[in-house]
Amino acid sequence: MTDIYDVTIIGGGPAGLFSAFYSGLRGMRTKIIEYQPKLGGKVLLYPEKMIWDAGGQPPVLGELFAKQLVNQGMTFQPTVCTNEKVDLIEKDENQNFLLTTHNGNKHYSKSVIVAIGGGIIQPRPLEVEAADRFVGKTLHYTVNDLRQFRDKVVMISGGGDSAVDWAAELLYIAKQVIIVSRRDKLSAHEALVKRLESSSAKILLNSRICGLAGNEGMIDQVKLENIHSGDMMMEEVDHLVVNHGYNRDSSFELAENLSLEMKDDYFYVGNAQGYTSEDGIFAAGDILTYDGKINLLVGAFQDAVNAVNSAKTYLEPSAEKVAMVSSHNKAFDEQNKKLIREMLR
Ligand SMILES: Cc1cc2nc3c(=O)[nH]c(=O)nc-3n(C[C@H](O)[C@H](O)[C@H](O)COP(=O)(O)OP(=O)(O)OC[C@H]3O[C@@H](n4cnc5c(N)ncnc54)[C@H](O)[C@@H]3O)c2cc1C
């Protein structure tokens, strides 16, 4: 038999996870569909970055923050389907949504929250022969553990914000930081670039990596080419962090009778209440755009609350437009009693 959920959230990043928490709070049967094997969204790309601006939260590493997001998202035990990419959204004759994923699975829902952020994100690989031999050991696309770089020579390839961020952070940890960029200047926050320029970091501009030498996953040397003169040079390196940006796939198909207003081929234009141009489809997080939209965690959380409240009133027009504050919610009665007893002990 077809199992029809009240709301199905596409994307298990901050917006999707907070939507799942909030829809549970509002008593809606909820499902999350996420393409990656793990929930957490883009935050999983910066596990070792300190997050300072999440609001009411002490500075926290991305890894822990993602874990906390997932725990909160699971409060009301939504159904979670990972490793599934939503490819097609349709409506059936009863006005229920039918979502088909890349592996042919079908999901039925009365409403949908699109929380796909920047889409499915994969780091752009280093285009150098046999680079795969080093991935996970000394060639990194995300930084999972800063301790491995202690007193090592670390090369960072890329000249954008993330690359410069990492170079600045590694100055305090690595023996030597080398930053390599094809551009003729680093294009990141001015203050950070100045800090790097006046530090011990070696900055190699107009250069690209054209070869890696080493054995059993351990890089010994990186071969570089000056993109103007063609001159070659070798650098002795222990670890290589590649930050060449990301490939994004934010595509899915809509049935002919459905439409979502889009901007720049990937933002869904909606409003601050999460409404999109299509009845019953709401959006939250980085995929949504409207005047005043903030593409940060705090923005994703606010969007999530609004999208859930809009989905709730779409399903039950007489429902409160806004949920009560969480401490007043019956769902937490037992836990509140327990926590207060523990505090008073
Ligand atoms: C390097 C970096 C550092 C950052 N630092 C900060 C910071 O310090 N503070 C801050 O507030 N913000 C920061 N941000 C921004 C913040 O991470 C984003 O605003 C936030 O992750 C947006 O959440 P989201 O849920 O909208 O999207 P995402 O986090 O992108 O999550 C979307 C999820 O949807 C999934 N998905 C996409 N398409 C499909 C599909 N068709 N089917 C199924 N699943 C799909 C994706 O796999 C992904 O898991 C940073 C971002 C980056 C890239």
From TrEMBL:
Chloroplast among keywords: no
Protein family (similarity comment): Belongs to the ferredoxin--NADP reductase type 2 family.
Assembly with partners or alone: Homodimer.
PANTHER family xref list: THIOREDOXIN REDUCTASE 1-RELATED-RELATED
Residue ranges constituting the FAD/NAD(P)-binding domain according to the UniProt record: 5-303
Reactions it catalyzes: 2 reduced [2Fe-2S]-[ferredoxin] + NADP(+) + H(+) = 2 oxidized [2Fe-2S]-[ferredoxin] + NADPH
Alphabetical UniProt keywords: FAD, Flavoprotein, NADP, Oxidoreductase
Positions contributing to FAD binding: E34, K42, Y46, V86, I121, D286, S327
InterPro entries with a match to the protein in the record: FAD/NAD-bd_sf, FAD/NAD-binding_dom, Fd--NADP_Rdtase_type_2, Ferredoxin-NADP_redctase_2
EC number annotated for this UniProt entry: 1.18.1.2
Name of the protein: Ferredoxin--NADP reductase
Co-factor: note: Binds 1 FAD per subunit.
The protein's required cofactors: FAD
Name of the top EC class for this enzyme: oxidoreductase
